[in-house]
Amino acid sequence: MLGLGIIGWIIVGGLAGWIASMIMKTNAQMGILLNIVVGIVGGLLGGFILALFGVDVAGGGLIFSFVTCLAGACLLLWVVGLVRGRSKV
């Protein structure tokens, strides 16, 4: 993912955050900037969790990076929903 550069992070993060917000039913509350932030933070979170399990996240490629961002963004939105006290995210 580092090979993509900052523009790649923004594009992949934005797409992952947007799709995650649709999956988690929070899309109406989020704008494009928040989708990008959620996707990038989700990618960091997903990469950190996978690294704990010994998965080589650096050499996974674009599709693996996108799936990692998407899963991490969904996890992040779920945790935020729990913290905010909503019964359904």
From TrEMBL:
The keyword DNA-binding does not apply. The keyword Lipid metabolism does not apply. It is a multi-pass membrane protein. The chain crosses the membrane at residues 6-24, 31-55, 61-83. It is found in: Cell membrane. GO terms for cellular component: plasma membrane. Keywords: Cell membrane, Membrane, Transmembrane, Transmembrane helix. It comes from the Bacteria. Belongs to the UPF0410 family. This is GlsB/YeaQ/YmgE family stress response membrane protein. It comes from Gordonia mangrovi.
